[in-house]
Amino acid sequence: MQDHELINDKVNLILSGINESKNYVSKLVKLKIKFDENIKFVDALTLPDINISLDLPNLNTLVTHFIQKGYTMADEYLLSCNDKLNDINIILGADAAH
User: Based on the domain organization, do 44 and 64 belong to the same domain?
Assistant: First the structure.
């Protein structure tokens, strides 16, 4: 198995956001992800892109406080995002959400 395996190439997907919902024909894949030395398989739905840009005032301050308290950020991009999130490549969710 490569880094993914195609399970279904025609899955109807509705993404509901804050302002609108969009319909997609997606692919369901089994994605191979490595966490430390452990390999896990996760079902994933694909999209051509995730077109989002969020302005989050004081996000950088919040991240700094978490780091000062000894937390490690799972996404190192948060260390330099300057209160704006965009160019998102993956969204994690639960099976119950789709």
Answer: no
